Amino acid sequence: MIETTINFLNALLWGKLLVYGLVGAGLYFTIRLAFIQLTHFKHSGEIMLKSRQGGGQSGLSSFQVFCTSMAARVGAGNMAGVAVAITAAGPGAVFWMWLIAILGMATAMVESTLAQVYKVRDEDGQYRGGPSYYMEKGLGQRWMGILFSIFLIIAFGLVFNAVQANTITGAMTQVFGFDPTYVGIGIVIVSAFVIMGGLNKVAKVSEIVVPIMALAYILIAFVVVAMNFEKLPDVFMLVIKSAFGLQEAVAGGVAYTIAQAMQAGIARGLFSNEAGMGSAANVAASASPNPNHPASQGFVQMMGVFVDTIVICTATAAIILLAGDVGSDSDGIKLTIDALTQHVGPWGGGFVALAILLFCFTSIIANYSYAETNVMYLSGNSKKALPIFRVCVLGMVMFGAVAKIGLVWNLADVSMGLMATVNIIALLLLSGLAIRVINDYRQQLKSGETPTFDASKFPELSNLEGGIWTSKTVEEEAKAQAKAVAKAEAANA
Known about the structure:
Layout: H1 2-32, H2 36-39, H3 41-49, H4 62-73, H5 76-89, H6 92-117, E1 120-121, E2 127-128, H7 131-139, H8 142-176, H9 180-195, H10 198-227, H11 232-243, H12 254-273, H13 280-284, H14 295-321, H15 333-344, H16 347-378, H17 386-402, H18 405-446, H19 468-471, H20 474-492
Antiparallel strand pairs: 1-2
Helix pairs in contact: 1-6, 1-12, 1-18, 3-14, 4-10, 4-14, 4-16, 5-12, 5-14, 5-15, 6-11, 6-12, 6-14, 6-18, 7-8, 7-18, 8-9, 8-16, 8-17, 8-18, 9-16, 9-17, 10-14, 10-16, 14-15, 15-16, 16-17
């Protein structure tokens, strides 16, 4: 009964609603923002690379936010998810992953900008924000914010962490023969150590681990491509032909094949880069205002979508497709392991297992940080509910370590789809304000100025209560931040 319901919801969400919703919203934002993901690509990279400064007790630096969001993005979706998509729908799924990523860059720009516009402070002075906050403060619909928070807590705090733990144990079992139960216990212990430290500890761990693991994985993918360079044109053509059903035209299954590739590619692409889902917007709101404009964080998150899917997911696809037929019994992370082992020998399996351990572990702690913000939202920014929630998260990590992969992935698809549906509606309703805020940034940048935000230009924000950008002048905000730092230092003394 449960599996039937989950399969029905997946068919409804991913067969119809979200395929059109995500592509449509991404295309709409791309056109309204004049292809910002292309015209301002270089600027996005510059902001990300120069963003280590800032942060502190009140907020994270933009680079810490980038690494935390990448920690959540880069995980099972990049390594196991790509393999699942290729197994289920053929190489054409990779093309649709690329497309949803390019369009999703504009969507990520919009949702992260709105998260910054409507962010608030919690009781400890930490910045909090995200879709729940802009649904309540921007649309005046708290019920919508509550609904989104519930979906996100289920998805990221519980189900997605089960997926990540499932992928880790799958890799460790295949490569090293470890018992899944003991692997699960180990993950729970280390995860507990990090998440008990809150958002700042999650960000600090991510800032160290994410760049190292991503660069190592990309490097090994480049080695594989170099070893098989002569096969690259054929593989690329295979992806394009399969995406549009040209490989199966003779068999008469064109429409079914295209739909299958689109569904698998968009679902796995969204699971990987999260653009439009509303998840990364939660941590985007945690960044300190440096530079002093909400749109700056939108550029950082736009680059995150590119790195996640266009770079890292493509690396996994290249490893798998360049290996050819690695066996009909290979699925999920096993397919990625078998493919890399075929390229470089037995040590390839150990490398993938280590990469999975780091990728998925950082995803667990970053997923928790997203859910924590929404638990805070539901509790009125009080931390009283966090200890109980942390125990529930760790329990789901243990469950995922020993569960069947099919059921876990299907649960992830449903919860992700419900989140994305609610968030896309909110983004479209608030798109007018977001686009004007982004264009305000671009106009100042074009004039050679350092963009700064003046809320008085936007009538919708005149009566906003509790907002960082509107409730205080820049000087007053600096004083509030200094006060929060002093409070934290006194508490630690």
